[in-house]
Specification:
Layout: E1 2-6, H1 11-22, E2 26-31, E3 45-48, H2 54-61, E4 66-69, H3 82-97, E5 101-105, H4 119-126, H5 130-144, E6 149-153
Parallel strand pairs: 1-2, 1-4, 2-3, 4-5, 5-6
Helix pairs in contact: 2-3, 3-5
């Protein structure tokens, strides 16, 4: 498969890239800073762009079978609209270039999984991580209602 991976330089994205390459997939790593790919640069096709830019994503996504978004905010507790803006750009770009498959990494505690969280987790999600979780909830809902063949995934914390 030809995969476009967003967030390829983060911890989860690097893992996804490694798994895809080991599986024999052709990987395009969509990054802000190609130097951050380090040793991955030799095993992927790096494309520099902004994950919130419809134009950048449409140019990168053309000819791919799927988009995998493993975007994150690192150590920040502020979303700054990253997930809502990126989901809008991804959905628009995918529709424009005919990519119908999307894998979107969210977080445990967003949406229905909030109910499965412990009391301590719920407190953290609704206070310290409130900005990020609210933004992710909006992004997740837009993806669920997009009509794309999507897979929504969560990870703890």
């Amino acid at each position: 498969m030809k995969l476009l991976i967003l967030g390829a330089t983060g911890p989860t994205g690097r893992h996804v890239v490694d798994l895809a390459v080991r599986s024999g997939d052709s990987v395009t790593a969509f990054v802000r800073n190609p130097a951050a790919l380090g040793d991955l640069a030799e095993r992927v096709t790096p494309v520099t762009g902004d994950a919130t830019s419809h134009r950048d994503l449409a140019a990168a996504a053309a000819g791919h079978d799927a988009i995998i978004a493993a975007l994150g905010r690192g150590n920040s507790v502020r979303a700054d609209g990253l997930f809502t803006r990126a989901s809008a750009a991804v959905l628009g770009a995918a529709g424009e270039v005919g990519v119908s498959r999307l894998v979107w990494l969210s977080s445990f505690g967003v949406g229905d999984t909030f109910d499965w969280s412990s009391a301590t987790q719920k407190l953290i999600y609704s206070t310290l991580l409130r900005s990020i979780y609210t933004d992710k909830e909006i992004a997740d809902e837009s993806i669920r209602s997009s009509g794309l063949d999507w897979t929504w995934s969560t990870r703890p914390g």
